[in-house]
Amino acid sequence: MMNVHPKRMSWIIKRLSLIVGGLAVLLLVIAAVQYRKKSVVGEDGLTITIVENEVQNKFVRERDVTEILFREFRHAIVGQPLELIDIEEVEEVLESDIFIKNADVYIDALNNVHITIEQRVPIARIMDEEDPSYYLDEDGARVRTSPKFTARVMVVTGKIGHFDDNYLNIPHHRLNRTFKLIQFIEQHPFWKAQFEQIHIDHSGEATLIPKLGDHKIKFGAPDEDIEDKFHRLEVFYHDGLPVEGWSKFKTINLAFKGQVVAKKR
Predict the structure, then answer these.
(1) What was the pLDDT predicted at 186?
(2) What are phi and psi of 183, to 5 degrees?
(3) Structure confidence at residue 16 (pLDDT)
(4) E strand or H helix at 109, and its extent?
(5) Start-to-end Cα distance in the chain
(6) What is the pLDDT of residue 37?
(7) Residue 226's CB: how many other CB atoms inside 10 A?
(8) Alpha helices (runs of H) in 49-173, residue ranges in sequence order
(9) How many Å apart are CA 53 and CA 45, to the nearest integer?
């Protein structure tokens, strides 16, 4: 019989203890993972959060999210084992909806599923002479109109041209040129509050319709000298209108470089 030195025996026992302990921990982890996978999402195990946007246009509701899930997966997560829930696929399906900009899905330590939805923010409604009405969001993406809600945003009418998915990369496209004007107005609170409509005529020039006053602003090409034109208009509003009054003018023309040509009634 082989004699083992006591120190050697002690070392072997410690090593075996570590191995056995490690295997036990590994088995516990595997069991916990398997238990978690088999866990079923309860009635209160799904939380859907719709991030409110600054204009409070609610194109997406909780019910819309569950309807999308039912349509694509034949279930709305509740009652499903966690192992059958593919988070990345759920996010991809939700983000394919025209009204949803981003979807974030995660499962917490208590096996609850959380879905956070960022909806698209419409900034203008496009009403072209030949195309069906639609919205543009802050990124220039097309958003169809909704029977559930009408957004109170800038309205663009006239001869804007057929929508092209690639219009932002087409410099001469009328919608591209008009979107630059929409963006400028949207980014400046005073002008956003002042104007309610842009009309594009058949030559491609823009006319702004203010909320206050009975005059119209002939803007010319919608994407040319935007900042300078609005600066001239601001000066005219500050210096000219207080003297003459809002009702005195029929049109204010900014199309001529460096000038403001106001036509009285």
Answers:
(1) 94
(2) -60, -45
(3) 65
(4) none
(5) 121
(6) 47
(7) 17
(8) 62-73, 87-95
(9) 26
Q: How far apart are CA 166 and CA 95, in angstroms?
A: 20
Tell me the average pLDDT across 65-90. 88
**183 C-beta neighbours (distance < 10 Å), count:** 16
Cα-based angle 228, 126, 66 (whole degrees, multiple of 5): 125
Instruction: Indicate whether 160 pLDDT > 50.
Output: yes
pLDDT at 35 > cutoff 50: no
Which neighbouring-strand residues pair with 116? 49, 104
Average pLDDT over residues 70-83: 85
> CA separation (Å) from 163 to 107, 131, 159, 205?
40, 8, 11, 18
Q: How far apart are CA 156 and CA 126, in angstroms?
A: 5
Supply the pTM of this predicted model. 0.76
- Please determine, for residue 14, whether its predicted confidence score (pLDDT) is greater than 70: no
Compute the half-sphere exposure of residue 112: CA atoms within 13 Å on the CB side of its CA: 10
* Confidence band for 190, pLDDT divided at 50, 70 and 90: very high
d(CA 219, CA 208): 7
d(CA 218, CA 93): 45
Number of helices (H) and strands (E), helices first, in the chain? 7, 12
8 A C-beta contact, residue 111 and residue 82: yes
Decide: 80 and 40 in contact? Cβ < 8 Å. Answer: yes
Contact 98, 146 (CB under 8 A): no
For the residues 247-253, what does the mean pLDDT come to?
Answer: 86
